[in-house]
Sequence to fold (212 residues):
Amino acid sequence: MLRPAWGAGPCAVGRASTWHLHRGGCSARRRWRRNPSAWRCGGSRVCVAAARLANSHGPRRLHEERVPLLPLVEDCLATARGQLGADARHCRIHASLEGVALHGDGRALRGALVQVLLRAARLTNAQDVIEMRFGRLGGMVAIIIEDEGVGAPAGDLVAQAPARGTRGIGFGLGLARSLLQAHGGDLVFESASGVGTRAWLTLPESRLLSAA
Fold:
């Protein structure tokens, strides 16, 4: 759990399920060895399709549908397991994600979520905890990802990412922001040195179809 320096979050924390990101990743790692280029940008052809959407010129076409949030999150964690290999991260999925459904492009939302989840995993240490939950704030809803990494100075972490790590991380966060903005949302970070980073993947509340 992140230390109290974060203060209260926008929603109460329910019971949590703990996932170990290194488990169940053997078949994914075999697929990566056979075709590593398919995994460069976040783990699957879905991410390639999301990148094409983000980079397309003119109005972006979203293939909108009902997207249950918990299965989406679980699918993204499976992708992250394949990327991380033997480097373990513990991910806690809060009960606030259960029963939530959004209206949006499932592939694009998956691409955005995978990129932010991989950023959290790559900039934390083995055995650190990553928490995922659902929240509301100021007419927006959000998937919230918190990590126990080193944190970073205040500012736009999307812009800072290339300087802090690899070019791939910076590209991934830019892609994630573009995909969320296509839905009327955004990607926003809070960070505290020595505490960790909190990412808000926001969407307009009008895209919320159901919530527990």
